[in-house]
Amino acid sequence: MGRVEGKVAFVTGAARGQGRSHAVHLAEEGADVIAVDICADIASNEYPLARPEDLEETVRLVEKTGRRIVTAQADVRDRTALAAALRTGLDEFGKLDVVVANAGICPLGEDLPVEAFIDAVDVDLVGVINTVHVALPHLGEGASVIMTGSVAGLLSSAASGSGPQGLGGAGYNLAKRVIVEYSTTLAVKLAPKAIRVNAVHPTNCDTDMLQSAPMYRTFRPDLENPTVEEAHAGFQSFQGMPVPWVDPSDISYAVLYLASDESRFVTGLQLPVDAGATVKGTGIRK
């Protein structure tokens, strides 16, 4: 039997990147999946987001494992649409065991308008809250809620909006910092119901968010249009270990652990998957 055999997981941002990886890893270990993605761009975010065909590829990969999947194109900022997407999955599978609130954007650039801050907070924080809140009435004893944070939410040196990160970067970092407090508070309140709440905090992860021109410029602000090769050293300098980034599957292994009964007594955890970024940096924020 798989590590999450018979469970049903609700995963946002599932069309590609970390979300797709989480959906596929959970399916490989026995879970059925309710997968949601916006499958459209957000104007303030200067790298392209997933497309419907990306979500179709997630379906193919999950079904290849022999598990079932229900999908919906929905914006996590829209709680009504998100609830409807979840309801479709519940009608198919009849229950919900695992929530992976993963959808996120990172609009970077010092010249971006204030909408970059708004969109980053609305997707990365409000979207996480919406995902969790539509799911909570359907969770019972033994359920697991997992939120995607970021090393930016743990480091006391997380940028407040100056420099090349700009307003969007400030919104991203704020959202990830608040996820620490939100997940911890919710973990305390849901512990008597035996519902676990944890957050995973990735470092640079090899996804479309990272492999984008705005991110390259953030790590090489001295260059106007740096290539990935030119940004490589900047990426690597962020971690303690000699790697520029981790793979989405590295994050999925942590998600899988937190989704499984192996972590049945683990709640309120802030789990960095960061190749030593936080211990190399200024440390976990106080």
TrEMBL record:
UniProt entry keywords in alphabetical sequence: NAD, Oxidoreductase
The record's InterPro entries line, in alphabetical order, gives: NAD(P)-bd_dom_sf (IPR036291), SDR_fam (IPR002347), SDR_subfam_1 (IPR023985)
Kindly indicate whether the keyword NAD belongs to this entry.
Answer: yes
What GO terms are given for molecular function? Answer: oxidoreductase activity, acting on NAD(P)H, oxygen as acceptor
Write down the NCBIfam families for this protein, in alphabetical order. Answer: PRK12826.1-3, SDR_subfam_1
- According to its UniProt record, which protein family does this protein belong to? Belongs to the short-chain dehydrogenases/reductases (SDR) family.
The record's listing under PANTHER family reads: BENZIL REDUCTASE (PTHR43008), CHAIN DEHYDROGENASE, PUTATIVE (AFU_ORTHOLOGUE AFUA_4G08710)-RELATED (PTHR43008:SF4)
Its protein name is Short-chain type dehydrogenase/reductase
